[in-house]
Design goal:
eight-stranded parallel β-sheet; binds pyridoxal-5'-phosphate; Lyase, Ornithine Decarboxylase, Chain A, domain 1
Length: 380
C-alpha cells in the first residue's frame, strides 16, 4: 500500500487455515463445512473460502443463493450449500451451478422440482428439520408430507436428497436441556427419512459451539462459521486460545490528530465525556459507518501508544476520540497505529472485548465491519 489507510481490517488467512485444521481434528470423523455467509463474517468470502478449501473444508456454506453464486463466479468448485430461500428464488441458477440447497417446506420443494425439470438435471437438496429452534425448518408434524414428496421426486429423478439437517438453539450453553431434546428429535427425523428411502449422503446439525463442545453432534458434517475466523462462540466456552483457535481479523486505524485541550473540555456529540484535567485527545478516524458500534461509546477499548485506552464519549459516524490522560508522557502522534481489536497476542483488545463493551456477541462485532473498510490479506 502506498498510502496509510484510514482504517483497515487485516485478515490473516494462515489463521483461517489453522482454525479449519484445528476444527477438522476436533471432528475427525466428519467432513467440515466452512460457513462463509455474510462475506465470511466480514472477513471476505472468496479469500476465506479459498483458504478454508486449502485446509480441507470439503463443503462451503452460505445463507443466500447470491452468496453461493459469488463463490462459483470466483471459480470455486466443489460442494457449496445455501439455505436461506424465499419464494421465487433463483432455484434454477442454483441447480445449474451445482449448488446444494436447503428445503424447509412444500413450497420450496415444489419450486426446486420445477427448476430441476427446466434445468434438465437433478437438484441436490437438504431437507431441514425444525428440531426445536423454531426458526427455519420443517416441523415434525409436517415432516412425513415433505419427506414423502421429496422421496417421490427422487424416484422420478428431479431431486437427490443429499442431506438431512437441523440447527441448534442453545449449543453455546453446554448442558442446556434443549440440546439433548433437539438431538433426540433429529435422530428420529433422520431415521424416518431414511426408512422412507431418502438415503442422505450427509446428516448435519453442529455449528461452531456444538463442534467444539459436543462430539455426539458431529454426525457426517459439521458446519463451522465463527470458529473458522478464530472467534469464540461465547465467553462461557473460553477464549479462542483455550479453544485452540487464532483470531483472523485485526482492526487497525491511523491516528488522525493529537491535540492538547484544557480541563473541563467536552468531547464528541452530547458531551458525554469531559476532560478531567489538561490532557491530550487522539482522533481515531473510524465510526459506526465503519461498523464501530455506537453502543460502545465511552466503553470500547483501543490499544494506542502502548496502552489499552477507552473510547471517550460518543462514537460518531466516521470518528471517535480517545482521551490520552494528563501529562505529556503518552507519546502518541498523528500517523500512529491504533489497534481496536486483534488476536490479543500483542496486548490489543479482542473482538470479544468489544462485544462486552457493546453488550453484544463477538459474531456481530466482526460481521458488521463495513464495506468502507478495506480488507488487507496476510498469508495469501
Ligand atoms: C450461521 C450458521 C452456521 C454457523 O454457525 P457458527 O455458530 O458461526 O458456527 C451453521 N448453520 C447455520 C444454519 C447457520 O445459519
Amino acid at each position: 500500500m502506498n498510502t496509510t489507510p484510514r482504517v483497515y481490517a487485516e485478515i490473516d488467512l494462515d489463521a483461517v487455515r489453522g482454525n479449519v485444521r484445528a476444527l477438522r481434528a476436533r471432528a475427525a470423523r466428519a467432513e467440515l463445512m466452512a460457513v462463509v455467509k455474510a462475506d465470511a463474517y466480514g472477513h471476505g468470502a472468496v479469500p476465506c473460502a479459498r483458504a478454508a478449501r486449502e485446509a480441507g473444508a470439503t463443503w462451503l456454506g452460505t445463507a443466500t443463493p447470491q452468496e453461493a453464486f459469488e463463490l462459483r463466479a470466483a471459480g470455486i468448485d466443489g460442494r457449496i450449500m445455501c439455505w436461506l430461500w424465499t419464494p421465487g428464488g433463483p432455484w434454477q441458477q442454483a441447480v445449474e451451478q451445482d449448488i446444494d440447497v436447503s428445503v424447509s417446506g412444500m413450497w420450496a420443494l415444489e419450486e426446486v422440482i420445477a427448476a430441476a425439470r427446466t434445468a434438465g438435471r437433478a437438484a441436490r437438496i437438504h431437507l431441514k428439520a425444525d428440531t426445536g429452534l423454531g426458526r427455519n425448518g420443517c416441523q415434525p408434524a409436517d415432516w412425513a408430507e415433505l419427506v414423502g414428496a421429496a422421496v417421490a421426486a427422487q424416484a422420478e429423478g428431479t431431486v437427490q436428497v443429499s442431506g438431512v439437517w437441523s440447527h441448534f438453539a442453545c449449543a453455546d450453553e453446554p448442558g442446556h436441556p434443549s440440546i439433548q431434546r433437539q438431538l433426540d428429535l433429529f435422530r428420529e427425523m433422520v431415521a424416518y427419512a431414511e426408512k422412507e428411502g431418502a438415503d442422505p449422503e450427509v446428516r448435519h446439525i453442529a455449528n461452531s459451539p456444538a463442534t467444539l463442545t459436543l462430539p455426539e453432534t458431529h454426525f457426517d458434517l459439521v458446519r463451522t462459521g465463527i470458529a473458522v475466523y478464530g472467534v469464540s462462540p461465547a465467553p462461557e466456552l473460553g477464549t479462542p486460545q483455550r479453544l485452540g483457535l487464532r483470531p483472523a481479523m485485526s482492526l487497525k486505524a491511523t491516528v488522525a490528530l493529537v491535540k492538547s485541550v484544557p480541563a473541563g473540555h467536552g468531547v464528541s456529540y452530547g458531551h458525554h465525556h469531559t476532560t478531567a484535567g489538561e490532557t491530550a485527545l487522539a482522533l481515531i478516524p473510524a465510526g459506526y459507518a465503519d461498523g464501530i458500534p455506537r453502543h460502545a461509546s465511552g466503553r470500547g477499548p483501543v490499544l494506542l501508544g502502548g496502552a489499552v485506552r477507552t473510547v471517550a464519549g460518543r462514537v460518531a459516524m466516521d470518528q471517535f476520540v480517545v482521551d490520552l490522560g494528563q501529562g505529556t508522557g503518552h507519546g502518541v502522534r498523528a500517523g500512529d497505529e491504533a489497534v481496536l481489536f486483534g488476536s490479543g497476542e500483542h496486548g490489543e483488545p479482542t473482538a470479544e472485548d468489544w462485544a462486552k463493551a457493546a453488550d453484544t456477541i463477538a459474531y456481530e462485532i466482526v460481521t458488521r465491519i463495513g464495506a468502507r473498510v478495506p480488507r488487507v490479506y496476510l498469508g495469501g
